[in-house]
Structure formats: C-alpha cells, structure tokens
Amino acid sequence: xxxxxxxxxxxxxxxxxxxxxxxxxxxxxxxxxxxxxxxxxxxxxxxxxxxxxxxxxxxxxxxxxxxxxxxxxxxxxxxxxxxxxxxxxxxxxxxxxxxxxxxxxxxxxxxxxxxxxxxxxxxxxxxxxxxxxxxxxxxxxxxxxxxxxxxxxxxxxxxxxxxxxxxxxxxxxxxxxxxxxxxxxxxxxxxxxxxxxxxxxxxxxxxxxxxxxxxxxxxxxxxxxxxxxxxxxxxxxxxxxxxxxxxxxxxxxxxxxxxxxxxxxxxxxxxxxxxxxxxxxxxxxxxxxxxxxxxxxxxxxxxxxxxxxxxx
Length: 312
Ligand SMILES: Nc1ncnc2c1ncn2[C@@H]1O[C@H](COP(=O)(O)OP(=O)(O)OP(=O)(O)O)[C@@H](O)[C@H]1O
Prior knowledge:
The chain is of the alpha/beta class. Helices cover about 30% and strands about 20% of the residues. GO terms for molecular function: ATP binding. Keywords: ATP-binding, Nucleotide-binding, Transport.
C-alpha cells in the first residue's frame, strides 16, 4: 500500500435528522429524530429493513440530500452538499462506471473536477487500483472485468479522492458470495491501511456484524435508531473463524430480533449503547408497531448469511 490518508480527526455527527419526501397529502415521512455519531477511524454498519430509509440516510450523510429536519456535520462543519471529506460508493457499479473509459481513466476522471493535475490524477488512480488489488488492469475497460472487479474499481475511484470518510450503500450486494467475502475483507483492510472512517449501509446482518466496530440498527415508522451495538469481536476478523464464534451468533440474533421488532427499543439489552441524542422520545419514534416493518429473513443463497427484506 503506497497511499496514506491523514485521518480527519472529526466525528461524523447525525443530529435529530428527519426526512420527509413530498408535501401535503403526498408527504412521506421516512426518517424522524435519527441521531448517531461515527468517530474517526470507526467502521460502522447501518442495518434495517428494506424500505426503512437506509439509502435516504446515506444520501443525507453524503450531502447529496438535505434532510428536512436536523443536521449532519463533520465536527462543527455542516454537511449540506457533497464535500471533499466524504467519498461514496453505490451498490450498482454498472451504473457508476463509464464503459467507454478505461479503468484507469474511470478512477482518475472525477479528480479532474477537483483541480488535480493530470500526472497526479494518473498516479493516484494507479495507487488506488493497486490498493484494491487491481494494479494491472488500468488499461482495460470495465466491461472486460468481473462484477467483483468492477466494484473494486468503484472503490478505487472513491479512495482516489483521499477522503477521510468513506460511505458505501449496499456495496457488495451485486456480486457472488465469494467476491462478496473478498470485498468485505478489502473494506476492512482499506480502513486499517488508509486509516479512514467507513460507514456501510446494508440489509445483510451477518455482513454488518462481521465488518463493524458498531452496528446501528434503524427501524420503525418513521425510521429511527433502535440500537447502537458495539461489536466486541476484536480487531481481527476472519470469514470462517469469526462467523463461527458463539458471540457472533449472539450478536446477529440480537440485531435480527430488533429488526423484526421482537426486541422493544424501550427495553434494550444490558450492553446496549444508546446513540447520542436518542432519548426516550427518539426510541419511541423508533418503536416498530406490531406487524409493521416485520422483516422476512432470507438466506443468502450461497451462505448462511441472514438478510432482511420487508416492504415499507
Ligand atoms: N426520491 C424519493 N421520493 C419519494 N420517496 C422516496 C424517494 N426515495 C426514497 N423514497 C421512499 O423512501 C422510503 C425509503 O427508501 P430508501 O431507498 O431510503 O430505503 P432503504 O432502506 O434504502 O431500502 P432498500 O433496503 O430496499 O434499499 C421508501 O418508501 C421509498 O419509496
């Protein structure tokens, strides 16, 4: 790894965020009173039922969407538009890579808009591709690569910004199981080697527990934080050994039952860590009424991973 990123040193703070799409009779309140904090260098996954508003939240975190209530900040700096401090990776690499551009140019191109000179753009692109294990494919086109490799290119493009915060929305959902495991381990390695803060939105509970220092569970109607759970599995993770730990099973069961509404947010488990700003009112807002947002756990076809799908 040749690239090193200075840690930003400021937390990402989500303070009582609310988001309502539309207005009047067609208003749809998706998020209400949602608060959380991600400290520099943390790896945090946000999990919740399908349709709960995870992508909406991530778009608010990235500055792509202005919340209708509350605020998002890096330290004291409001995030009201996309910032150089925050890079984003979306799920659909097919839609985000430009097929007519070589891989190297796909990674380098966005840096042009940041005023980075050509020689440095190409150097950063090569470094970033090396960081994701694709140092020798810069001359190829995206469509000449596998799905997993294309998503690595999307990650390389994000880290080429050298942003201290990396946000990823269901980043590994479009690839097969083996590629997914490899990408998960890549994300862990990048966090460690680049010393960045990583926030991943996923509906895959096993993935969240495997990757995270903390799992933030969001649920309810409207959606809020129902748990902020420290993942005490140690800094080193291994796809086989970590997932076989009894503690791993305990943590995934807890998250699953919270998403399914089986654990009342008003009665958290003893080791629950309340999110900043999530007082009793926020918890009440996050309570999933019986029968609502009831998730249907679905087996990941190639593994025993628990995924959650439900209609909003
Ligand atoms: N631009 C928009 N305008 C109106 N409603 C929207 C818009 N974007 C999302 N929604 C609605 O907000 C709700 C939350 O959507 P969102 O995509 O954020 O959820 P999600 O948890 O990411 O879902 P999934 O897990 O299925 O990807 C849904 O009911 C969706 O229809």
